[in-house]
Specification:
Layout: H1 3-13, H2 19-27, H3 34-44, H4 51-63, E1 65-68, H5 76-87, E2 101-104, H6 109-116, E3 122-127, H7 137-150, E4 154-158, H8 161-165, H9 169-183, E5 187-191, H10 200-212, E6 217-219, H11 231-248, E7 253-255, H12 263-276, E8 289-291, H13 294-307
Parallel strand pairs: 1-2, 1-8, 2-3, 3-4, 4-5, 5-6, 6-7
Helix pairs in contact: 3-11, 4-12, 4-13, 5-6, 7-9, 10-11, 11-12
């Protein structure tokens, strides 16, 4: 890290001390060219990936999946079965890689931990009054500590969108800092819920706010609102992590979540990652897909490439 980068990182770390300083910095970020961002995202989505490169992209995408179930009807048996699938996505093909993580509610963490221990698959838990974020801070932090104590090594927190949209940036910053502390050694993914932020400028500001407060990942969505991950929003977030690393020397991951269902969708995102932030982010440590149905499509396309036979959706378990 250069002396200039060290100095910049030190200056940015001081922003959280003052609401005025945070506001001045966040509103001083360059505005997002909406037309340009949407055109750029659309253009990247037209790139064609074939044969060997496609096979490599599919295996990489599988390794990047956070296999997720966040339903009120989740049971210990259901999440154990999901965890087993995460470890061995295609029981008929031992060469198929495992996924990046399994993501569940805090109450389900102990059951998933039983299955994942020693497998290399991470255990993620949503927390902080997911999906609304509308709870007192003490409850959010207790939620986080309980998930970590039960075995989660990744925490997916939600920001208080009401506070952010009202311009109470320090309140949001302080909650992220406190959640990061409560997470201990677990990685913290900060969910922006971009579908509720209204503008690309707000997405950029929320991305920087989450990173300044210590988030290890920034994540688009809970998957519980009508508008989830989109290519243009993800592009804005990728540009933010790129610029943040240039300013501070610290790399932050990105996780689009919600609405990503097909191999074609996943490959569009991988192309965007490669051409926006580069190969450093083409790794499960720095890029994830939050998804439930994506894995099955990736497995079907993988089987087609390796055997020449299209297995169809009934070949794999429904999640």
């Amino acid at each position: 890290m250069t002396a200039t980068t060290t100095s910049a990182r030190s200056e940015l770390s001081e922003l959280g001390r003052s609401e005025t300083a945070l506001r001045t910095f966040l509103h001083g970020l360059p505005g997002v060219d909406q037309v340009g961002a949407e055109q750029r995202a659309a253009q990247l989505g037209t790139r064609s990936i074939k044969t060997t490169a496609k096979a490599q992209a599919i295996d990489l995408a599988i390794r990047m999946v956070d296999l997720t179930t966040l339903e009120g009807a989740d049971t210990p048996g259901k999440v154990r079965a999901l965890a087993a699938k995460a470890v061995r996505p295609d029981p008929a093909d031992p060469s198929c890689p495992h996924v990046g993580a399994v993501c569940v509610y805090p109450a389900m963490v102990p059951y998933v931990a039983e299955v994942l221990r020693g497998t290399g698959v991470h255990l993620a838990s949503v927390a902080t009054a997911f999906p609304s974020g509308q709870a007192p801070l003490e409850i959010k932090l207790a939620d986080t500590r309980a998930a970590v104590a039960a075995g989660a090594d990744e925490i997916d927190m939600v920001i208080n969108r009401g506070a952010f949209l009202a311009g109470r940036y320090k309140e949001v910053y302080d909650e992220i800092v406190a959640t990061k502390e409560a997470s201990g050694d677990a990685h913290l993914k900060v969910i922006l819920e971009t579908g509720e932020l209204a503008t690309y400028d707000n997405v950029r500001r929320a991305s920087w706010l989450a990173m300044l407060a210590g988030g290890d990942f920034i994540k688009t969505s809970t998957g519980k609102v009508p508008v989830a991950a989109t290519l243009p929003v993800s592009l804005v977030m990728l540009e933010a992590v790129r610029d943040f690393r240039a300013a501070t020397g610290r790399q932050v991951g990105v996780k689009p979540a919600g609405g990503i269902k097909t191999t074609k969708d996943a490959i569009k995102y991988l192309v965007m990652v490669n051409e926006t932030v580069g190969a450093d982010w083409l790794d499960p440590d720095w890029f994830r897909f939050g998804a439930s149905s994506l894995l099955n499509d990736l497995l079907m396309q993988r089987t087609k490439l390796t055997t020449g036979t299209y297995s169809g959706p009934d070949y794999f378990t429904l999640d």
